[in-house]
Amino acid sequence: MGENYFLEKRAKEVVEGLGLKRKPKFGFTLGSGWGNVVHMLKNATVLSYSSIGLPACGVAGHAGNFVFGELHGVEVVVQQGRYHLYEGKQFSQILLPVAIMKECGIDALVLTNAAGGINQSYAVGDLMFLSDHINLTGRNPLIGVEPTKDHPVFVDMTQIYDREMAENLCDAAEDMGISHHRGVYMQVLGPSFETPAEIRAFRSMGADAVGMSTVMEAIYARYLGLRVAGISCITNMAAGIKDQKLRHEDVLKESNARGKKFSEFLDRFVCMDK
Predict the structure, then answer these.
(1) Which residues contact 88 (CB under 8 A, 6 or more apart)?
(2) How far apart are CA 7 and CA 13, in angstroms?
(3) How far is CA 194 from the centre of its chain?
(4) What is the mean pLDDT of residues 68-85?
(5) What is the domain range of residue 36?
(6) Does residue 102 have a pLDDT over 50?
């Protein structure tokens, strides 16, 4: 049996064990510095990963919880912290939270991350809404997955990021005066930051920002038939663009400094997209 069978089976076991009567419409995967979003939720229920048999997150800034609650009266579920390929995690671990949220009933998934800006018109603190991505990890989460009638593995990636969701994100950012862009995100394997030569190469390939997450989850979410949106917070300019050294601590500092405003921004987005 393929990987998808075990993911779906495990997701059903987890959700049945929760005994939740809530059916969320939206799922949110929170990357580095986005964790404050959970403070906007009404009637929140917090479930640690460990309480449902998932491993703890191994990266600073990733709490490791599922949080169920409401935004503008809309039921949502938040994945507060994710797993990464660079931690040595298997696809089954990285994708299981997405499968769990799908099993809970979501039809749309918003993936957030902290990213390095490659496009020189970007500035630290800007948001980039993903119009497309480049997968430079050399891996694909659908390898070994058995195709089914409902979920073929030859998934059309022509429009992986939902246009309507992206337009609503742009409108919410406009309303709040948040500087934003539409752009192409590149996922690399990590965990080391990129070299200046690599960033020049990535720019020539059409990338506007670079990070170490999101693309695997986006591909899998589209395979599951979910609407997908992606948001990058530009927490630093990529290597060689400015005379600076790159540290994960600085990435967290920049994203955490904007946590409250970005939480209010996602709250406004849900109001527009519901």
Answers:
(1) none
(2) 10
(3) 20
(4) 90
(5) 3-273
(6) yes
Q: Give yes or no: 99 in active site.
A: no
220 carries an active-site annotation:
no
The CATH number of residue 59's host domain is 3.40.50.1580
Q: Name the active-site residue from 113, 213, 232, 263.
A: 213
The single residue of 212, 218, 221, 239 carrying the catalytic annotation is 212
Summarize pLDDT for 234-272 with one digit per residue, the tens.
988 888 787 666 666 666 666 666 667 777 888 889 877
pLDDT of res. 258: 65
- Respond yes or no: is residue 151 known to be catalytic: no
- 177 compared with 144, residue with greater pLDDT: 177
- Mark whether 32 is an active-site residue: yes
Cβ neighbours around 78 below 10 Å, total: 28
**Is 146 one of the annotated active-site residues of the chain?**
no
Which among 43, 38, 41 has a CA at the least distance from the CA of 62? 38
Q: How confident is the model at residue 1 (pLDDT cuts 50, 70, 90)?
A: very low
The predicted pLDDT at position 58 comes to 61
Number of domains in the chain: 1
| Residue 92 annotated among the catalytic residues of the structure | no
131 is annotated as an active-site residue: no
Is 133 a catalytic site residue?
Answer: no
Residue from 4, 36, 62, 65 carrying the catalytic annotation: 62
Tokens read off for 213: 């997450």
Catalytic residue, from 65, 232, 236, 263: name it: 236
Cα separation, 243 vs 113, in Å, equals: 23
- Of the candidates 99, 114, 165, 216, the residue annotated as catalytic is 114
* Residue 102: φ, ψ to 5°: -60, -45
- Phi first, then psi, for residue 177 (nearest 5°) are 70, 30
